[in-house]
Amino acid sequence: MTEFWRTEIKKAVTNKKNQRVVDMIIPDSATAVAVAEPILFKVYGKDEILGEKPYKVDAVDGYWVLTGTLPKGYFGGTFVIIMAAKDGRVIKLTHYK
Length: 97
Known about the structure:
Distance between the termini: 45 Å
Number of helices: 3
Low-confidence stretches: none
Largest sheet: 4 strands, antiparallel
Oligomer: single chain
């Protein structure tokens, strides 16, 4: 089966007429959250990330910047993830202390 998929991948990469051109993989804030959460959950833990809701989500120059928030009176850091809107690449992923 692996050899079949190797062949399919090779065809997909070389056959441009069957490829779809997508202007933007992450077009809106809801999609940005849907893409970011599984990554954040895996790296930092689901409970940790959900504890930083509501998220702050900003579109800046073709990138989505998502950060967590802390309740009033709490000190510490939150996650930051920056993703390219065009192709979904993660440009930055960190959690401040």
